[in-house]
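=== Structure Prediction Worksheet ===
Name of assembly: unnamed complex
Input type: mixed (protein and possibly other molecules)
Chain count: three
Listed entries:
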Amino acid sequence: MHIADGILSNEVCLGAGLLAAGAVGLSLRKLNDTVSLRTVPLTGMMAALIFAAQMVKFPLLVVPAYGHLLGGVLAAIVVGPWAGCVAMALVLFLQMALFADGGWMAYGANVLNMGVVGSLGGHAVYSLIRRHWSGPRGVIAGAAIASWLSVVAGSALFCLEFALSHRHAEFNISSLCAVMTTFHSLVGVGEALITGSLISYLLTMRPDLVDLPGRSAGVVAGISRLLWTGTIAALVIAAFLAPFAADGADALEATAEKFEFASLEKERPAPLPDYEVPLPGVSYETGVWHKVSVSLAGILGTSAVLGITLLMRRFTRSKLDSREFEATHGG
Amino acid sequence: MAVEFLERYSQGQSLCHRWPARAKIVLTLLVIATGTLLPLEYWPASGCLAGLALVGLSVADIPLGYIGRRLALFLPLVLMTALAAPLSRGFMGAWDTAAVIVLRSTVAFLAALWLVSTTPLETLLAGLCRLGMPRVFVSLLIFTLRYLYVLFDELARMKTAQRARTFQRQSTWRSWLGTTQLVGMLLIRALNRAERIHAAMMSRGWRGRMELLDD
Amino acid sequence: MPHSAAPILKVEHLSYRYPTGQLALRGVSLTVGLNEIVGLVGPNGAGKTTLLLHLNGLLTGTREPAHAPGLPANPAATGRQTTVGGHNVPIEVLGMPVTPANFPEIRRNVGVMFQDPDDQLFCPTVRDDVAFGPLNLEFPRNEVRRRVAEALTAVGLADYEERRPHELSFGEKRRVCLAGVLACEPSLLALDEPSSNLDPRSRRGLIEILKSCRAAQIIASHDLEMIVELCQRVIVLDHGQIQADGPTRDILGNASLMARHGLEVPLSIQYGLPLPPTASSPPSAT
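=== Predicted Assembly ===
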């Protein structure tokens, strides 16, 4: 998941760095406004925890392989979006400065794709779901859906950065996005499973640690509903519309044109008419592949979330009386 | 145990380890910037930069096996990203995009590896602080590093305890639950510890500013 | 500095309820005088740590006498039913009520040492950690350096300034914690299980350090032999109430009292072993 140096152009790295610096700076300021004296121990400890937890291999339930936590949504749910965003920036920095994981130039892009999208965007999705779905199931479903979306949105953002970095290259950006987001929709299922499990474990052991009313209320009240809706709309667009590029309604191109990156259109040769997906023995007509991948991603994600919710319901109900939960959380 | 893992080579005593951190940071960033700007036609220059980084690594007494292992973990990931470009054309073109990505990122990776394996994190942070990195962020990083050691040791102890109580091969579902419990318990302990640290800081007059006694 | 007549610490009818509603302390009253070393003993969950956390305002309890039915009357509270200077705060340190306005002054005068040294060593080097308190108290840098050097010498780790916390042994970590507390030059030390998990030599070293401290001390511990050696007076805390308060040998030698509160008569008292000679002599600085 870490972007190495040399994959994105330096201009894009700079732009992403500025955006990330803005977001992390804002988060630090928000933290100082709300929980000043707790900031350092809580944020630092969360960062250390995410770092350590990323080292733990989870056996993937469906395939005989291991996956690990990314943690942006988990951090945001436990310590709040602002502290979560800062914690992710800390984790990514330490991985870069201790192991050379992730490039120094690409640090901003990494923070943007994983930290900012994961914590701020993920928490936006989570709190929206929480508002319409109360009780422990809402918490778990919100966490799982937000995790899945944050991974897919992060990969879509990466595609956008990649496309802007190699504007003059002759590859097919829409196909690349389709491949990338499809792959990451699978990675996202793993992240959703892990985050959902951890949150449901926390709900059984220490429900007071998940979503303290004061914390999320402050954040939700502080920012207008409009902004949240906008963020979520952007996330959904990034996750779902980016692959919808096949029939000429290229979302990326549309975005690029809007921002007057007209050169993208001019320099890029038209997509091959008889495009074949390089899967052994399988070939598709133009455009079919994109629709397939998008619906595949959508179906996979939705069913995974549904499955997790049902599973966790059993897992949670056995140990936690839901009335007790309502009492501590006020619904 | 955590120390071995987190700072494998950065505590060495070679010539490179003794250079001032600021000079190393600036040099590395220059090499990375140059390496990532070079077009494909200038591949000999990229090769020279990669060679320079390798010479630096060997002067710093970093074993070749370690560099090889790190490259073996790094290259597949970069290759996957790089190959996405030709893949999008059904492997009918865009090969130079892939090549330039692999070339540039390898140079940058070797340079960064040299920097982080010759500089202990505290020194690196002190250097970055003098180069203008925000103080708040640096003090948060220092705090995080301190508790990374504590959490790693705690995680190791919990893993041992878990292994001691696991007698036979487990089903995937069981071991999934076990892993969830492990990380969840670590999370709860970490948050409890954060509360206790907060109390300890308050007892000693904490006012929200992480000050260090610099000499 | 306090005038000698006032006690260093005065707690009256302190009660505290956990956020969960469980009563942790019920009408606790005690005083600690100048140079006094008081032991605080009792079974797990008796409220010892909770009481210590009140002494510098980390927790804030209320002032209400215990009258829970079915529980024995608080022997320490009887006959001391005066109000503290007309206000309603249950704790006074050096004559100052423990209120948020006084926190900076209180926290400089009450040094609390926690049980797990890793909770207290949050700085990158030993020097930074010991300097943390004095720096936050806004002493000039030269004064901070003097205090750091003095505190580290007092715990016998003078050349450890550059060391990093994760490189230290458990005993060394605990001594650095103590140095961090001593660097604030407190009038009262509140120590939570100072000898737990220490090997015999580290424990012996710690006891000698505590003997040489000038500050008054309140030591919560299960290490009754250490209490016998260090303290002139012992308080037994159980179910959040003070069950006994008196001279160490009388209290710890009372077998039925000890058994009632999950404790044991220490072997040194049971077999009448002689105490180390310095135990009851007034502490002096080294």
